Amino acid sequence: MKKTELKKVLKPLIKECIKEVMFEEGVLSGIISEVVKGLGTNTIVEQKRQPAVVQQAPQRSDEEIKAKLRETKSRMLDAIGKDAYGGIDLFEGTAPMRAESGPGDPMSGMDPGDPGVDISGILNLSGGNWGKLAG
User: Fold this and answer.
1) In this structure, what DSSP letter does residue 2 have?
2) Are 77 and 91 spatial neighbours (Cβ–Cβ below 8 Å)?
3) What angle do CA 72, 75, 79 make, to 5 degrees?
4) CA atoms within 13 A on the CB side of 133
5) How many CA atoms lie within 13 A of 118 on its CB side?
6) How is the chain split into domains, by residue range?
7) pLDDT of the chain along its 135 residues, tens only?
8) Is the separation of the CB atoms in 96 and 69 below 8 Å?
């Protein structure tokens, strides 16, 4: 028997068996009831919370900060007396301390205006043989 002939004979038999199992034995109704139960459960609804609004202190301009600093310096000089140190301005050339850095800051404790160490002449230390030394 050829494949096509076998297919023609078996296909209606298999189709009838499947219909019988699904309809007469209640398999289809069981599947439908399971799906309906799944659809009937409470659906989860995500509620989005609005992020808390953080109010930042208003930024002062540099001029305001410098003016306040000058005013504080002059009040301190007035309090100790301008003539106490021979009329010398104790605060001349001083700058306010910089803000504290975090604990993991590798540059903590360093002046941000510090130029550092000049290493431009490091290649000349080897007498022009840097390529041979690094080699």
Assistant:
1) -
2) yes
3) 135
4) 9
5) 3
6) 3-39, 62-93
7) 788 998 888 999 998 888 888 777 777 788 888 887 777 766 677 777 777 776 666 666 788 888 898 898 888 878 777 666 777 777 777 777 777 777 777 777 777 778 888 888 777 777 767 677 676
8) yes
